[in-house]
Design a protein that fits this description.
- It catalyses: chlorophyllide a + oxidized 2[4Fe-4S]-[ferredoxin] + 2 ADP + 2 phosphate = protochlorophyllide a + reduced 2[4Fe-4S]-[ferredoxin] + 2 ATP + 2 H2O.
- Protochlorophyllide reductase is composed of three subunits; BchL, BchN and BchB. Forms a heterotetramer of two BchB and two BchN subunits.
- This is Light-independent protochlorophyllide reductase subunit N.
- GO terms for molecular function: 4 iron, 4 sulfur cluster binding; ATP binding; metal ion binding; oxidoreductase activity, acting on iron-sulfur proteins as donors; oxidoreductase activity, acting on the CH-CH group of donors, iron-sulfur protein as acceptor.
- It is a single chain.
- By secondary structure, the chain is an alpha/beta fold.
- It is 45% helix and 16% strand.
- The strands form three sheets. It has a six-stranded parallel sheet, sandwiched between helices. A four-stranded parallel sheet has the order 3-2-4-5, with helices on both faces.
- The longest helix is centred in the middle third of the chain and has 23 residues, at 267-289.
- The radius of gyration is 22 Å and the shape is globular.
- 47% of the residues are buried.
- Residues 77-82 have low confidence and may be disordered.
Length: 425
């Protein structure tokens, strides 16, 4: 399989770097999918009542359910440094672990920088590890909206785990990034059918399934927002397999091909394994692309999925990208997607929201991909919008989800057309 590279991709395009007011969720949001993925983990957010309300509202937790996350609420006296927050935290953790003996991994998640909450969670994690090991492993990371954006919570979580992974000399393939179980199963089935193995996954479902890492480990990312995890694995001696991300038929094929080449999979075996799902993906995308072809799209920075998704929409759905904004541009991760994205759109990193709003109004795109805070105001101005957050919560990776991915973008255009028709009548 050879990729149809554009004569001039976007890797060399000058990047518009903006630093101003941002409109993004904080990194605490990652807990919403991570607590479902890691079956014996618990996420204890050390923060305010506001953080507790955010998680309860965003996760839609029923009052009689007992999820695998909670909030250790800091009162005014804690924030002022008048109370011994460390002793209080130790007591709360002790009560939690006594009540929930199924917990094997405990994540202390800071909702604010340590200077604000007057509590060094890194030291607290070390202390609690000494108290509760080996039954429970305690980690810490920041989900602060001051320090992280929406998807960086997962990156910070996985990066915190990497230094504790056991060493190995084995040649393993490590798949890095949280996916819904059904999508992960599809990914592993395709790779196993090619004879690739052993395959490990981070995050693992349980502490006993955590991967080992060493100089013979090679890893492939399924999420483009894992820059810190990527760096942590490199420090452990592992080697990254660069590839376009597995969104759409082309991205999935290129991602699988990069791994197959690394493990010497014969070309005919590779083609036979992917033939049927690839054909289904092409057919499903074509059904949705009819409404996308020839339309323009503008990406506000939100999830760090923007560059691979722009590549998918332009090359597989026939759209024109006007601007592709991303919170952070990590060329080592999204470079292969930039190579495939034809030159033309503005590539921007960071955000100055007022300036970007001026640009989207001037461009008047057919579809605007943005965060929840911007979607309703833009809809009121007559723009068709797609919530960026939905692209993280919905299964969108690999062949069987390719049509659904295209449908996430075609539906807003369909809805706008219906509303226009009804208004005319």
């Amino acid at each position: 399989m050879s990729l149809d590279l554009p004569s001039d991709g976007c890797r060399s395009t000058p990047v518009l770097k903006e630093r101003g007011q941002r409109e993004v969720f904080c990194g605490l949001t990652g807990i919403i999918w991570l607590h479902r993925k890691m079956q014996d983990a618990f996420f204890l957010v050390v923060g305010s009542r506001t953080c507790a309300h955010l998680l309860q509202s965003a996760a839609g937790v029923m009052i009689f359910a007992e999820p695998r996350f909670g909030t250790a609420i800091l009162e005014e006296k804690d924030l002022a440094g008048l109370a011994d927050a460390n002793a209080e935290l130790d007591r709360e953790v002790g009560r939690l672990l006594a009540r929930r003996p199924d917990i094997r991994q405990l994540f202390l998640v800071g909702s604010c920088p340590s200077e604000v909450i007057k509590l060094d969670l890194a030291r607290a994690a070390e202390r609690l590890n000494q108290q509760h090991a080996p039954h429970v492993r305690v980690y810490n990371y920041s989900g602060s909206g001051i320090e992280t954006t929406f998807t960086q919570g997962e990156d910070a979580c996985l990066a915190a785990m990497v230094p504790t992974l056991a060493p190995t000399a084995a040649r393993d393939l490590l798949i890095v990034g949280a996916m819904p179980d059904v999508v992960e199963d599809q990914c592993l089935a395709l790779l196993s059918a090619m004879g690739i193995g052993p395959i490990r996954v981070l995050p693992a479902h349980r502490a006993g399934e955590l991967p080992h890492v060493g100089e013979n480990t090679v890893f492939a990312l399924v999420q483009p927002f894992l820059g810190d995890t990527h760096a942590a694995l490199i420090r452990r001696g592992a080697r990254h397999i660069p590839a376009p991300f597995p969104f759409g038929e082309e991205g999935s094929t290129a991602w699988l091909r990069a791994i197959a080449d690394e493990f010497g999979v014969p070309r005919d075996l590779f083609e036979s394994v992917i033939a049927a799902p690839r054909a289904r993906a092409q057919k499903a995308i074509a059904a949705q692309a009819a409404e996308l072809r020839g339309k323009s799209v503008f990406f506000f920075p939100d999830s760090q999925l923007e560059i691979p998704l722009a590549r998918f929409l332009v090359r597989e759905c026939g759209m024109t990208a006007i601007e592709v904004g991303t919170p952070y541009l990590h060329e080592g991760l999204v470079g292969p997607d930039l190579d495939l994205l034809p030159k033309g759109p503005v590539i921007s990193e960071g955000q100055d929201v007022e300036k970007q709003l001026d640009r989207v109004r001037a461009a008047s795109p057919d579809l605007t991909v943005c965060g929840l805070g911007l979607a309703n105001p833009l809809e009121a101005e007559g723009f068709a919008t797609k919530w960026a957050i939905e692209l993280v919560f919905t299964p969108v990776h690999f062949y069987e989800q390719a049509g659904d991915l295209a449908g996430l973008f075609s539906r807003p255009l369909r809805r706008k057309a219906i509303l226009r028709k009804e208004a005319a009548e």
